[in-house]
Design brief:
Elements: E1 2-5, H1 12-21, E2 26-31, E3 36-37, E4 54-56, E5 62-64, H2 66-76, H3 89-109, H4 119-140, H5 153-162, H6 164-168, H7 176-186, H8 189-197
Parallel strand pairs: 1-2
Antiparallel strand pairs: 1-4, 2-3, 4-5
Length: 202
């Protein structure tokens, strides 16, 4: 299978999960401005929307949207316990967290990456993110990971979005438990491998 990614983008999340699952895959670097892969192919021929991530399976099936991709990967490697079993209440809790990270954290950063967005709008976006970080801070006061004591696919997603605080000038020091979570995930071998592959760390 092939994972189309852009360094440090939300595609880092399934990249980490593929490493955690120990699956064989090809990582295809993609330029989101030119919509071309590192080999010069037109990425829109793969994903007409032109954004990452996209996972192309060995049979040619295209799967897009990070929360769906990471669940697919987890279900292909159930022994790794990266997601609770389908149909269980724990799986629905995982999906609840995936939706939270997707809509409240991931999309919360979008205005901050838009150069056309007025400073006032960016301040509002940061203020909104702060309330979400406060919610997470309280959660991590009693939990090592979003699902409790065990790492799951949603932790890779939250970790990825928290990486964006540096580029957007957001200070996480008011949230020491959230910072500790980020540091905890960063130390995982699979995370280190994925980040090195993307050129994010040496």
């Amino acid at each position: 299978m092939k994972l189309f990614y852009s360094p440090g983008a939300c595609s880092l999340s399934p990249h980490i999960v593929l490493e955690e699952a120990g699956m064989t895959y090809e990582a295809v670097k993609t330029d989101l401005k030119t919509k071309q892969t590192v080999a010069g192919a037109d990425y829109k021929q793969t994903n007409p929307l032109g954004y990452v991530p996209a996972l192309v399976l060995d049979d040619g099936t295209l799967l897009t949207e990070g929360p769906a991709i990471v669940q697919y990967i987890a279900d292909k490697a159930p022994e790794k316990k990266l997601a609770p079993a389908n149909g269980t209440m724990e799986r629905y809790k995982l999906q609840s967290w995936l939706n939270f990270v997707s809509t409240e954290i991931h999309k919360g950063f979008s205005p901050l990456f838009n150069p056309a967005m007025p400073d006032e709008a960016k301040k509002l976006a940061k203020d909104r993110l702060a309330t979400r970080f406060e919610h997470l801070e309280k959660h991590f006061a009693g939990n090592d990971y979003l699902m409790g004591s065990s790492f799951s696919v949603v932790d890779a997603y939250l970790f990825t979005t928290l990486n964006w605080t540096k580029a957007t000038g957001i200070d996480l020091s008011p949230y020491p438990k959230l910072q500790a979570f980020h540091a905890r995930v960063a130390k995982r071998p699979a995370v280190q491998v994925a980040m090195k592959q993307e050129g994010l760390i040496k």
